Amino acid sequence: MRPTRSKTWFTRFAKWTAKAAGRPIAFTAAVAVIALWALTGPIFGFSDTWQLIINTGTTIITFLMVFLIQSTQNRDSEAIQVKLDELIRLSKGGHNALLDLEELEEAELDSIRAEYCKIAEDARANLRRGQRDTGVPEVRHEIESVKRDVQQEKRELAELKKRI
Q: CA 20 to 30 Å from 91, out of 50, 57, 122, 161?
C-alpha cells in the first residue's frame, strides 16, 4: 500500500529534502564541496572572496534547511501524537486525560509528569521488596480534573434550572 501523496508542493519538497539530507551521499557531497573549496585556497591566495564564498553558501543552505527540516519534524511529531492518543484512547484502563497532553501549559504538564515519576518510584520500590510492579494506579491529577469538570457542570445545570 502506497502512502498518501502530500497535496502541497512545499510539503512534498520538505519531505524530499529532509530525506535526501539524511542520506550518506548528502554528507559525502558536503565533504567533497568543502574539500574542493579548501583545495582552491592556494589558487585564490586564501583571499577574503574565497572565504566569503564558503561562508555565504553554508549560511544560505543552513538557513533554508532549518525551515524545511522543522516543517518535516513538526508534521512527524503531530502524527506520532495522534497515534499515541489513539493508543491511549483504545487501551483498557488508559487515562483519557492524557489525550492531547502536548497542548497543556508547562505547569500542568510538570504536575502530571511528577505524578508519573511518583508512580515509577513506587513501582521500583515494590520491585526491591519483591512485589509486583504491575497494575494501573490512579493518577490523582485526572481524578481532580474530572471532579472539577463535574462540579462545573453541576453549577451550570443549577443555573439553567434557575432560568427555567
A: 122
